[in-house]
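To make this tangible, we now present a fold written out as tokens:
***
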Amino acid sequence: MTSSYLDRFVADSTDRVSWLRARSRGITATDVAKLSTPRSIETAAEAKLNGTGFTGNAFTDHGRRREPEIAAWVAATHGIQPSSSLYHAAVERRHLATPDGVTTTPEGVVILSEIKTTTKPWRSVPRNYLRQIFWQQYVLGAERTLVVWEEHRNFVPVGEEPLCRWIDRDEAEIGKLVGLANDLINELHRRTTAPAPRTESAPDPFYY
């Protein structure tokens, strides 16, 4: 693996307007997390075009506050540097991901990190998060991801340090997700290029 993902930079989340616009015109890890089965395509398409109405709560606010602190711990203990950049895949520009951390080893191997906060102890990484992780690995060409989670009670961290686990790249899972993501793109095309007359409120055709 090489650091060629750097050539596929799309936007940075520090420029939130550009970042959100770019995300809206592609399939992100957040979108892919919803794609557990072919039946989930329609639900994901609805959310992509019309939004979910969710704008955050106390738990998401806590996660945003804690992420920089956890990212600093990841950098200090594992050398994976924080990242806020959105990248597209090597072949399909509408396949997008914003990993929480990324680094490249001297041998050229790309390694990612993904940071979560939770109110529950994890025995394993939840499946929706695994889908996000495999998708990010695919988009950036990464071989491994360090999943880092911090449990909290009443927004106070439980342990002195976060917990973490390595997740290796899984080509079979990636293949499934790519297929589902392309099905979602096709569904979005179908919904945004219908032959009905366009109005000012009609969505733009879905393309990068």
Summary: The chain has six helices and nine strands. The first strand starts at residue 9 and ends at 12. Strands lie at 9-12, 81-82, 85-88, 96-97, 101-104, 110-118, 144-153, 156-157, 163-168.
